[in-house]
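Dissemination and training. As part of the outreach component of the grant, students in the summer workshop were shown how a complex can be specified as a set of sequence lines and then modelled as a single object. The example used during the hands-on session is reproduced here so that future cohorts can follow it. Participants entered these lines:
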Amino acid sequence: MLVKKLFTLVFINKEDQILLGLKKRGFGVKKWNGFGGKVEPNETILEAAARELNEECCVSVRPSDLKNIAHLEFTFEGQPMLMDVRVFSTNVFEGNPKETEEMVPKWFKNTEVPFDDMWPDDRIWFPYMLQGKKFFGKFHYEGFDKILNYKIEEINCM
Ligand code: 6OG
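and obtained this result:
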């Protein structure tokens, strides 16, 4: 049986740029990604998304300004966990991104996303996000580098 764990993932947009963070430790170390983590029992998903963003790069957002743009599920061959990741984006934020113990933040042009140094699934679903689509994606990995199978579909409401 798979144990489902809920995670957040937040992307900040500014004009034609997207804010990514290089993970300095833990799961996904040395990969560029959005900002996020586990949802704690005492908070809503939106509160967790805003909290993790602030903890990881010192940028503040109001939870109500976050738009839920995607739902991603990740499973790993031989592992009993399903990562249920809720993806949010916004262009309404306060503060300049700062390096923390967890992440080195950097703005990238939407046309210069560093896919070679990101999770392999990102290459598949970023185009949906960058075109303003909402979507559901499901990815099954062997280890952390190879996608064995996946499904992705655009959805009209989240
Ligand atoms: P912490 O361990 O830092 O939360 N995450 C993924 N993001 C992408 N783009 N691809 C994946 O493919 C991912 N698996 C997990 C969810 C982990 C953070 O990493 C995201 C969380 O934001 C496998 O607390």
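DSSP finds two helices and eight strands in the chain. Students were then asked to discuss how this feature might be tested experimentally.
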